[in-house]
Amino acid sequence: MTETAPVIHWFRRDLRLSDNLALHAALESGAKVIPLFIFDPAILKSPSTGAPRLSFLIKGLQAIDAQLRDYGTRLLIRHGDPVKVLTDLAQETATAAVFANRDYTPFARERDQAVAEALNVPLRSFDDAIVIAPDDMLKPDGTPFLVYSPYMKHWKKQPKPALSEVEARAGQFHDLSGLDTPDIPTLADLGFSETIAVPEASEKEAQYRLKEFINQHIYVYAEERNRLVTDPFADPRPIGPSVLSPYLRLGMLSPRQTYWAAREAYERADHKAGQDSVTKWVDELIWREFYMTILFHFPHAARYNFRREYDALQWRHAPDEFDAWMHGQTGYPVVDAAMRQLNAVGWLPNRARMIVASFLSKDLLIDWREGERYFMQGLIDGDPANNNGGWQWTAGTGTDAQPYFRIFNPVSQSQKFDPEGEYIRRWVPELRDVPARHIHTPWEMDTPPRAYPRRIVEHEMARERTLAAFGAIKKERES
Description:
By secondary structure, the chain is mainly alpha-helical. The protein has helices spanning 21-28, 41-44, 51-69, 82-93, 106-118, 148-157, 203-217, 221-224, 245-249, 255-268, 272-297, 319-326, 333-345, 350-363, 368-378, 384-395, 410-417, 422-427, 459-478; strands spanning 7-11, 33-39, 76-79, 97-101, 123-126. It has three domains: 7-128, 3-Layer(aba) Sandwich (Rossmann fold); 130-161 and 203-297, Serine Threonine Protein Phosphatase 5, Tetratricopeptide repeat; 308-473, Orthogonal Bundle (DNA Cyclobutane Dipyrimidine Photolyase, subunit A, domain 3). Helix content is 46%, strand content 5%.
C-alpha cells in the first residue's frame, strides 16, 4: 500500500464514529479514508423496506455527515449496485482496500461475496454488529446451537472484546474535492412518502439514551420490561423497555457499548435484585445475537419455516382479516392498540409484538411471513434476523420456538399487562370512556361503543382451529 493510495470505509449498518471496528482499522492503516454510503436499488425496491426505517436511516446519515464535516470531510453518497459503485470508485481513486463491517443476512453475504470477487483490491471485513461472531459460537462438536439457553450459557463464558478507543482526527480523510459529492437524498428523492415522524437518529442521541437507561431504569428492567409503553420516545424516557433497538439496528450504538455499559451497571448495583435486572437485560441482548447467528447458519429461515415440517401447514388466506389486523380493527383492544402504535410511531414494546404476532399466526392462522413483512415495512428497528426469529418463535415454526399449543389469549394478555387500560385508551380513542371492567372486553357491555369494530374472530374457536392445523402436522410426522 502506497502512502498516497486511499482506502474506502463502506458504511452500512454502522452509522457511528466511535467503537467502529472497520472504520478504526481503516483509520489506523495509515491511508487517507473515503467515507462512503451506497443506496442500493435492490434494498430500496425490497418489499421489506418501508418509509419509517428509511427516514430514520436518512437522519442517521445526516448526523454522521455532520460529524465528518468536523474533520474536514463529508459522507460520500452513491446510488447503484454496490459491485459497480465500488469497482468504479476504487478505480477512480486508486483505492488500496475497502473496509466494511460484516452483515450476516443471506442477502448481505451474497452481496459482499460479489463485491469481493469483483474488486481488484482487498475487501477487509470485521465482526462489528455482534459481540461474538456466529463462526465463534459453536457447540463442542462444531455444529450451531439450536436452543437459546445453551447458546446463552456458552455466550456468557466467552471473553468479550474491549471497546475500540481509536478516535478520528482531522487530516485522516481523503480529499473529496475531485469527486462528485451529491447531497444525502430525501425520502421523496428515493421514491417514498413520509408516513410518520421518526425520533432523533444519531450517535449522540444513541449514547444519551443508553446512558439514561443505564443510570435510571436498568435496575427495574426485569419487573418492568413487559410494560406496554404508550409513548416510547417521550422525554423523560418511560420506565420499561430500553427502546435502544433502533440505534442498535443501524449501528448508531455498538453491541459492545451496550454490553460494557451493562457490566458497569451490574458492578454498581447495591442489591441482588438490581444485578438480576441487569442480567435480564443482557439476556435480551443475547437473544439478538442468537437470532443473528441462527440466520447466519440457516439462511433458509429468511424465507421458509425453520422447521421444514411446517411447510405443509395449511395457512388461511384471509385478506380482509389481515387488513383488519394491519389497521388495528380486529375488535380486540390490546391488539388494535398495538397495531395503531406501530403504524403511528414505527416501534412496539416486545410484549405487544408477541401479542399481535400470536393473534395473526394463531388466532387468524395467517402465515407468519405476511406479518413479518408488514413489521419490516413499518418498524424503524426492523432487523431481518430478529424480526424473523421473533415471528417464527411466536408462530411455533422456528428454532427454540414457543410450542404450537401455547397460544396467547389476547384478553388475558391485555388484563395482565395493561390492567387499567392506559395503553388501550392512548391508542384506541373509541374506547377512551369505557370503564376499566370492560376495557379489555368491550363486546360484553350492554351497549358497546358504536365506533369500535366487532371481533373478527372468537378466540376459543380460533384456538381449536389452530390446534387442529398444527396437530395434523404432528400426526403426519408420527405416522
